[in-house]
């Protein structure tokens, strides 16, 4: 075989791989729209990282602890705070019921996001960017700039603070998306602040409701009120070989708390609990709430930011809406001094700047 022929074959292969790579960056939905019978190799995980999908339905399902927001606002608050603390320590996750957000707001958010993903690729692709700091970004995988194996996931990320600055950058199509996200982001921000107050109480950093000093509570919450918020709509197309890939690989969330609206019809969220992967059983009209890395740091390790991942389905597409909350960008996250003691000294890893975590742990 002549050297010239070998060089030509190698060049052709490199060109094919370049074209393939560009196609993957256009998103998994775009690939599926063109027709797929098998999972492309770019999405196939190493054998040991692939999901084990049990043939026995329910064998690995998990019912998360349930926190009733109505009880947090009534005479059962102290007891409910203890349940909240236990859930954050032992699971890092809980399901929130009676959360007070209108079903219409939730439905409008889901419908607007779904309509965005149904737009022609040419319209969706207007918002693709490698710049992870932009206020709106349509993308794919986990971190498409670094991933050697891609996740079976596309996403729309919308920065929500301050709304007046970011709103003009959001997609203008579908027509109802902007208003749906504005309403939903305001309601989830209010819900988040209620949960933050409960978390601070559960950690002993704020007096419980009947003994609370109003000024003390306001001082603690003020820094959270001006915090960051990101709405991330996740879309996971149906997958011809779901045992070879994942919608999202194992990760923890970077922020303080994440409020997730799961797909109630198609399960897929798994958390690592007691050394194994278990599938979360969604409760209708509830949020799945999880502890983020910043809360684990802030609590000096008392509350756990737990690894989780997403399975894909061979028959149905799946969608979820995540609202990620934390302190303002460029804040320094440290353990609360009140949670450091001789028995529980400060952990060296528990000091981080938010911007560093954003750059190193891109989950949207």
TrEMBL record:
Keywords: Cytoplasm, Iron, Metal-binding, Nucleus, Oxidoreductase, Vitamin C. Its main location: cytoplasm. InterPro entries: DIOX_N (IPR026992), IPNS-like_FE2OG_OXY (IPR044861), IPNS-like_sf (IPR027443), Oxoglu/Fe-dep_dioxygenase_dom (IPR005123), Plant_2OG-oxidoreductases (IPR050295). GO terms for molecular function: L-ascorbic acid binding; metal ion binding; oxidoreductase activity. It holds the Pfam family DIOX_N. It is found in: Cytoplasm; Nucleus. PROSITE patterns: FE2OG_OXY. Residues 226-327 form the Fe2OG dioxygenase domain. SUPFAM superfamilies: Clavaminate synthase-like. GO terms for cellular component: cytoplasm; nucleus. It comes from the Eukaryota. PANTHER family: OXOGLUTARATE/IRON-DEPENDENT DIOXYGENASE. Belongs to the iron/ascorbate-dependent oxidoreductase family. Involved in the regulation of shoot development and salicylic acid (SA) homeostasis. This is 2-OXOGLUTARATE (2OG) AND FE(II)-DEPENDENT OXYGENASE SUPERFAMILY PROTEIN-RELATED. It comes from Salix viminalis (Common osier).
